[in-house]
Write a structure and sequence with these properties.
By secondary structure, the protein is of the alpha/beta class. It has one domain: Vaccinia Virus protein VP39 (Rossmann fold), CATH 3.40.50.150. It is 28% helix and 28% strand. Strand 1, helix 3 and strand 2 form a beta-alpha-beta unit. It is globular, with a radius of gyration of 16 Å.
Length: 218
């Protein structure tokens, strides 16, 4: 069974009221980012040991958490939007997959809880720089020694494409930024590039991307 963690209060992120923002977007018919998992996650999931304990951060309507669960991992996921979490639970029931769903913001999540073998954060770019720093500190702290952090996000070039993302340069990622946020990381993958995305109706077209996989020393 799923449980709620803390109160899904608005984080001090890039939107004035992030819960209302995402509730409104996720209330539209269908799945905003589609049913298929993120392609970066599909490519890199083979790095995870079998039956890993995985946390998916701001997982939205569940596509990535459910993909990881389908691979046999023990997956926990949270999102600030109760609308998204309800859709994720319905999709999990439809697919007969088990995920431990929680309703929480990044700042309300208990990063001091049980450690994870892997943490996944795909397009979690609502966060302004202070919120982003706290989020990365929390994700890194919550990993077991030798654990993996998998991150995909948009780079500043995305402001030229406008095919998804927050449209605010302070919320976008660069490789140098991630190196500064995670000075202890062993980088298994860190690259900026361009590609075509087709993720539901929200991420469609040429996009400026950053892929990162970091191992926590141990």
């Amino acid at each position: 069974m799923s449980s709620d963690t803390g109160k899904a209060a608005p984080a001090s992120g890039g939107f004035d009221d992030p819960q209302a923002h995402w509730d409104q977007r996720f209330s539209r018919p269908g799945l905003l980012f589609g049913e298929q998992p993120n392609r970066f996650l599909e490519r890199e999931a083979s790095r995870l040991p079998s039956h890993s304990r995985v946390l998916s951060v701001a997982d939205g309507e569940g596509r990535n958490a459910l993909y990881l669960a389908s691979l046999g991992h023990q997956v926990t996921a949270f999102d600030i939007s109760p609308v998204a979490v309800a859709k994720a639970r319905a999709l999990a029931e439809q697919r007969e997959l088990q995920v431990d769903w929680h309703l929480s913001s990044v700042d309300a999540w208990n990063w001091d809880g049980p450690p994870w073998d892997a943490v996944v954060a795909v397009f979690v770019q609502f966060a302004d720089p202070p919120t982003r720093r706290r989020m990365f500190e929390g994700m890194w702290k919550s990993l077991v020694p030798g654990g993996l952090l998998l991150v995909q996000g948009y780079t500043p070039r995305q402001l030229e494409f406008r095919t998804g993302g927050p449209g605010k340069i302070d919320n976008l990622y660069t490789a140098d930024m991630l190196r500064a946020l995670l000075p202890e990381a062993q980088w298994l993958l860190l690259r900026e590039y361009e590609d075509e995305l087709a993720e539901g109706s929200a991420h469609v077209g040429r996009s400026a991307l950053l892929d990162a996989v970091a191992r926590k020393p141990g």
